[in-house]
Write a structure and sequence with these properties.
The chain is an alpha+beta fold and 317 residues long. Helix content is 43%, strand content 14%. The strands form three sheets. The chain has a five-stranded antiparallel sheet with strand order 1-2-3-5-4, with helices on one face. It has a three-stranded antiparallel sheet with strand order 6-8-9, covered by helices on one side. Strands 7-10 form a two-stranded antiparallel ribbon. 34% of the residues are buried.
Length: 317
């Protein structure tokens, strides 16, 4: 199973073209044919009376719960544990980028080629479970596990900082475990930040990494990321391109944990100001990182023993 997916990825990289659409997402007709149980009896009544396809049914019965540059997320009428992420594309270039995200999701979830046309549970707990997709004329619809909270919210951060030190360490280790699982598949997330770490429950359990929109294989071209969480080397491309390394995610984790611990916003603001793009500001960046980590992991928070580890994670060297 993994061998088949690896061969697909190698083909994609070497040939430099997107895979045939059917290899990653079924059409609406193919999806309907192979997922009758998932669609439910309400859809059968809808189709009999209105004669519309499943995309039209989703438009009528789903409720939007989030939107942004990534697209829109909808709650399913007949399945509260699954959401639909709609990614509209304007041209073949955008379509290819979204299919790359699907490829990363299928790789991490362990989907085999003969499961691509039907809803299939994700076999990994590293990411918000990807269950399948539909490719329409101008959009890709991703079916994913519903998550409730992300670590960027004010209330979530407040609740995190109120936890005992060892419980905060437990959360950090859980997040690290999710990244280890991604890295075992040679996938670099490239956009780790509090907003892309989500929880199913308010007690900080069942942590998942979300949004593989700019993820790519280790050693492949960097697709994107967020200023303030990208390491210095992301701004120093060699031969006109930047190749991804696991160090990108390690740096981003260090910045994320410091942000969650608090007392880091002023120094983080300097890094978010893209000072890595300006060689004459490297020393200012370096000092800001050092001071910010000292503040985030100071002794009275009882996690100062983690400071040397975080210093290595965001090191300039």
């Amino acid at each position: 199973m993994r061998h088949n997916i690896t061969l697909l990825l190698i083909f994609y990289v070497l040939v430099g073209v997107s895979l045939a659409d059917k290899d990653l997402c079924p059409t609406v007709e193919e999806f309907e044919r192979n997922n009758e149980e998932f669609m439910g009896k309400d859809y059968k009544e809808f189709k009999a009376n209105i004669k519309g396809d499943f995309i039209k049914y989703l438009a009528r019965t789903s409720k939007i719960i989030a939107s942004g540059t990534f697209g829109e997320v909808y709650e399913l009428f007949n399945n509260k544990d699954t959401v639909i992420k709609m990614l509209k594309f304007r041209d073949e270039g955008e379509k290819k980028e979204y299919l790359r995200e699907v490829m990363m999701l299928r790789l991490v979830c362990g989907h085999s080629e003969d499961e691509y046309d039907r809803i299939t549970e994700c076999r990994s707990h590293a990411i918000a479970g990807f269950k399948g997709c539909i490719l329409d004329d101008n959009a890709i619809y991703l079916f994913q596990e519903r998550m409730s909270f992300d670590l960027s919210g004010r209330d979530t951060k407040k609740a995190y900082k109120a936890l005992p030190p060892l419980e905060r360490v437990r959360i950090m280790l859980d997040v690290i475990d999710r990244l280890i699982e991604l890295h075992k598949e040679k996938v670099v997330h490239s956009d780790i930040k509090p907003a892309n770490i989500m929880l199913k429950h308010s007690n900080f359990t069942e942590i998942r990494v979300v949004d593989l929109g700019v993820a790519n294989k280790e050693g492949e071209k960097m697709v994107g990321g967020t200023h303030g969480y990208l390491p210095l080397e992301a701004y120093k491309p060699e031969n006109g391109k930047t190749l991804l390394s696991f160090k990108y995610d390690i740096f981003a984790l260090g910045m994320t944990f410091a942000e969650l611990e608090g007392d880091f916003s002023n120094e983080h603001g300097i890094i978010k100001g893209r000072c890595f793009e300006k060689p004459y500001m490297y020393e200012i960046c370096k000092e800001a990182l050092a001071e910010g980590l000292d503040h985030a992991f100071k002794a009275d928070k009882k996690l100062d023993s983690l400071l040397p580890v975080m210093q290595i994670a965001v090191s300039f060297d």
